[in-house]
Design brief:
282 residues; mainly beta; Immunoglobulin-like; Glucose Permease (Domain IIA); 48% strand
Amino acid sequence: MKLSPQSILLLLLFLFQPGIATNLYAQAPKEEKSVEVNSVRTNDTFHLNATNKNPYSITLTIEVSGDNFKLNTRQPVTKIIEPNSTKHLLSVFADDKEKNFKFNTSYKWIMGNTRASHNDSYIYSLPFSKGKSYRVGQSYDGDFSHNGNIRYSVDFMMPLKSQIRAARSGYVVQLKEDSNRGGKAEVFKDQSNFVVIEHEDGTFAEYAHLSKNGVLVELGQKVREGQIIGLSGNTGYSTGPHLHFMVLKVNEDGTNESLPVRFKTESGIVERFEEGKFYMAH
């Protein structure tokens, strides 16, 4: 058997990293942490593993090309990799063991679990303190800006620096709090402060327009439902102080899709808020 030293060329031809907060309001900052694909050789087989160094789940797709190689699975291979973890992707070996073989790899990954399925039986808490009541300025399909991929969003009108609480438990995966700019102009669309929390079913919740230095949690922190996570503000694309809330999932093409969810309020379960009406947290 003649096997020359093998080289794995990790061609990052398709590597990209869209952020979860890519709506009209919160544009996610670029992450310094990344994803690595490495190999471990056992005899004449190369085992490829991916390490996700980010605080959120990712979906990674990898393909292999080359000469005289064979895989232990069909390709392309797509895997969901949990935060700060390593997962085996595939194994590569010679098709004809009497000949040399070589292979190259290319992979791409996006933030989030594209196979996530929202738990529709879950009833969310209102994202503010029990006993507090705030007016809904814009509900699902709101005429001002709740359309397209953020159609299932809710704006709660509240004074600056009101306490914001987690509507559902999860892990903090993105945040921004360094902005003090806001207004009704295109230039402010990437100036919103926000917190993004990943839920156990792979969906995310976004809390946007927070005040400067108004994020009260840390990246990677586990938060429980009802925990204070920030202070409301008026940053980003905004016409006045309020909290923008929505639940979303990531599609296979990396785009975000907001989801309709139900909330528990002092007066019962609400499936769709009425604009102009006040709702009290239960």
